[in-house]
Amino acid sequence: MSKVVLITGASSGIGNRTALILAKQGYTVYAATRTPEKISVNIKNLHVLKLDITNSGSIKRAVDHIKFQHEKIDVLLNNAGYALVSTVEDVTEEEMYQQFNINVFSIFRLCKFVTPLMRQQNSGVIINISSFLGKVGLPLFSFYNSTKYAVEGITDSLRYELKDFNIRVHSILPGFFQTNFAKNNLVTNDLTFDIKSPYSPLVKNLVPNIVEQINNGDDTLEAALLVQSMIENEDSPARATVGEKARQFLPMRKELSDEDFERRVREYYNLNG
User: Fold this and answer.
1) For residues 114 and 63, is the Cβ–Cβ distance under 8 A?
2) Residue span of the structural domain in which 237 resides
3) Is there a contact between 49 and 32 (Cβ–Cβ < 8 Å)?
4) Active-site residue 171, yes or no?
5) One of 12, 86, 106, 130 is an active-site residue; which one?
6) In the annotation, is 257 catalytic?
7) Is 148 assigned a catalytic role?
8) What is the mean pLDDT of each run of 10 residues along the chain (273 residues)?
9) Is residue 167 classed as helix, strand or coil in its secondary structure?
10) Which CATH number fits the domain that encloses residue 199?
11) Which of 144, 171, 199, 245 is labelled catalytic?
12) Catalytic residue chosen out of the listed positions 3, 135, 148, 245
């Protein structure tokens, strides 16, 4: 019997590529998204599922549907997310809440409804897509950074919590990948991006650089194959990096002091004014 996989944010990027790869490898894949019309691939064991990860009722209905069809969920890939680009000074309460609602609270919601089924099965794999920015701070990305730092904390704590039930919990920290992230998943604050903003020089310097790095990033196939390997290898590390930027920055983050690492980041992104 094939493994049953639930993937959030599956209409584009890493989520979409992973859904296609796993389905072609014989997995039964539920590709969950708010916009199911964007997934038009016809693969027998790829099931498109409309899901609102901000709504517990929507999640419960989705999990109940999969449980009715298969009596199990073997893998949960928490992939959905976006990045708010804003200064702390300019951000609104709604913007702050939405950033955490999508990137953090949704993981809690998904795990709340999936882990009971995995616990009864006495097996399961949960993989949280984090970011190398879950270990590296950047200006204007304080809210996105902090959500990804939170994802790392969730992952570490859940690993202890679920170990006795034979449920593995991992995180993947991608660098920048060639996806529609820069186009569809960067949400900007109007005040921060106003030409009269005191932060305008920082915005003009940093944001185009980040967008270019995303648009010229790594192939999502690399990340999708890492997800597959993590599912199939019980000895997979607790967290793994993928992509050039992650491989470049994260080892450096471990080796250097906070002050030296910050100097490197400021130099790399030309943040010294």
Assistant:
1) yes
2) 4-268
3) yes
4) no
5) 130
6) no
7) yes
8) 94 94 97 91 91 97 97 97 96 98 98 98 98 94 97 98 98 86 78 96 93 88 96 96 92 93 91 76
9) strand
10) 3.40.50.720
11) 144
12) 148
